[in-house]
Structures are given as structure tokens and as C-alpha cells.
Amino acid sequence: MRALEAYRVALVGMASFPIVACVDLFHSTDDILTACQIDAATPGCTPANGGSSPGSDAADARPPLNFCDWTPEQAQAVAHRTCAWLGACESPMGGNAFGACMIQALLAFDCAANPNHPVLGVAREGWACLVAATSCQDVSQCIFPAGQPVCRNADDGTACATASLGGGADSVRYECGEEAGGAIWGESCTLWGETCVSQGMGAACGGGTGCDAGVLASCDEDLTLVHWCGTDGEDLGLDCAGNGAGHCGGFPTSDASWTACVPQPAADAPTPCNATLSVACMNGTALSCPTGVPERVDCSALLGGLVDACSPGTLNPPFDWTSPCGLPEPCPADACDGSVLTGCSRGATFSVDCLAEDLKPCRLVTTDVDAEPHAACSPP
What we know:
With 380 residues, this protein is of the alpha+beta class. The chain has one domain (2-33, 70-378). Helix content is 19%, strand content 23%. The protein has 8 helices and 20 strands. The chain has helices at 5-12, 35-38, 57-61, 72-90, 98-109, 121-132, 136-143, 299-302, and strands at residues 21-24, 158-161, 172-175, 185-188, 195-199, 202-206, 217-219, 225-228, 238-239, 248-251, 258-261, 276-282, 285-289, 295-298, 313-314, 335-337, 340-345, 348-353, 360-365, 374-378. Strands 1-18-17-16 form a 4-stranded mixed beta sheet. Strands 14-13-12-15 form a 4-stranded antiparallel beta sheet. The longest helix has 19 residues, at 72-90.
């Protein structure tokens, strides 16, 4: 979804009033869930610290704690910590930048705000791994579970690697930093519902390589990947296997005109609706029905509590149920004020105190993939 920012900017830019949102949660770390609270089967967990002894019947039968069991306050606190650590340990390259990461983390952690497209599968495993991380080595293992690839030269730029021990599709974009001979920075495209695609001399997170010229959108033969062709022929699609019902489809079903990720109906969902790309806003919540199932996403909760965080109109692109969420005000540059980091995404600013997250003070980091430096906490 991060690769769709150009579409979101065009959509929210139609609004006529300036708004600035600021999420300024300098929270207590008492709200942070431990690894054992997240997954009771984590090695080392015991009944005393929130889990069962490894190998016990209770541990084997007890599934990982669902993110949807968390309160919005817990989701906010965990998102702040997770994104602060990701940027500190793997650099704020691409979607690792604090503001962009916060949007994606809240979509994964706050099921009250995002009830129809909860995170699934490998994407969920990646987020759960980062939440449980307590060191930069842990974070690196979450991004590179198959081990870091090796850079030939410090100026190799960006490239793709697979995160799976068994191979498979490339899902990690990595950058060779100042230290030649080691891939020191990595971005998991899987967390954003995307894959890593080689582009010229570099790489990018996107929808894959299945974009056919002249075909605006399609759903692959496995009914998981939505391919969407950008203006330059790049694939800006989304992996629907990582959210909602886990697959995509064409809609309306009688005569498909667009493709979208199929949602999970909410427990209190009203009756089915006629598939449409229209979006209505109610108290900061976007209401839509692209697949014939009523959907909602709380833009206000994602963007700092403002009821004007939702822009009515049309889903653009059709598969991005979050596209109405954004503010028309352009993002200011990332900033550091001692230990306080401020980043921005979709016009909304997000702040975190690095010291409160057991990290060192804020710094500005320049990466090869971003024209402007981004703020990041320093590693512990």
C-alpha cells in the first residue's frame, strides 16, 4: 500500500481546507506487550510470565495471541515501539520511515480501526516477530530470517533477496550502506503487502512483475495478487494473501470492472451491498463496498484522531480500501528534537520519544532510495 501514495495524494488533494494532525503519544512502556503475551509458545515463556512451558500440552494447544485482542491504546503503543526499533536497526529506508511504518503497523495491530482486512499469514508473522524483538539482532532476523545477503561494494545500491529459508519469491529490499561487504539495511516488502521487484540498477517494493501494458488491473491465477499498472508501467498492486479473506476477485461478480481484496465481514456487518467504488465518510470513518460486502476503516484512528481524516469520493485504486484516509496538507520534513522523533505520512505527523522506547536519541539518516533524509532513533 505504501507504493500507492501517489494515488492517495491525488485523491486527498481535492479537499479545500488545510489540516494538520499530530499523534504525540509519549506513552509509558508499561503498555507494551511482552513476547510471551503476544505468543505464549515463544521459547522461554512460563506460566509466570504469561505463557506455558515450552513443549507442554498447554503451550502446544494455545495459539498466538490475536492482534485483534488488543485495545486501540495497546495497538498504538506497540506500533510506536515497533516502528521506532525498525527504523533504528534497519534504517528509515522506504516503508521503514517512522510515519509510513506507523500507518502500516496500525492497520496490522488495530482491528477496531481496520476490522475487515486483518493482517494474515506471512505478513502477520513478520509483524509478530518485530513486536517481540528486544535487540537489533532480533530485528535483523525478522527482516532477514534466511540471513543477510552480502554486498560486493558499498555503492551497490538496492537489490532484492528472499526472506524464506526455503527460497521463494523475493520479499526483502536491501541496501548496501557505508560498510562495504555487508548488507546492513533491509526493508520487508511483505509487511506492506508487496514484493521486491528489480528496477534497472535498483529495486523497489511493489505488486510484482505481472503488470501487462494496456491492462489497468488484474487478479493472478492464484487469486491472491492484484496487479495494477502505474503510469510508468510499474506494478503497484497488492498481495491480498496478507489481509482480509486472503484472496482477490473481480467485481461486480456479474460483470467484473475492477479487482479488489476480498474482506472479512465484520461480526456486526449489515446486509450485503451492491458492489461500488463509492466512498462515504462518517465521523472520520470511510464506508465502502467494493466487493459487495460492507467495509469500513477508521481513518481518524489511523491519522491522529481528526474526523476530517477521511475524504469521500471513490476508491482509487479500487483494491486499496485505505485510499480515502489522508489529509490534504503536504507532509513536513522529518525532524529530530533531542530524543524526540517526528515523521509524517498522508499529511499526518507522528512522534515518539526514542529514550522511552529504550533507544538512543533521534538522528537524520540519508539512504540511497530516498531523496530526503528521514528521522530515526539511534540503535540501543
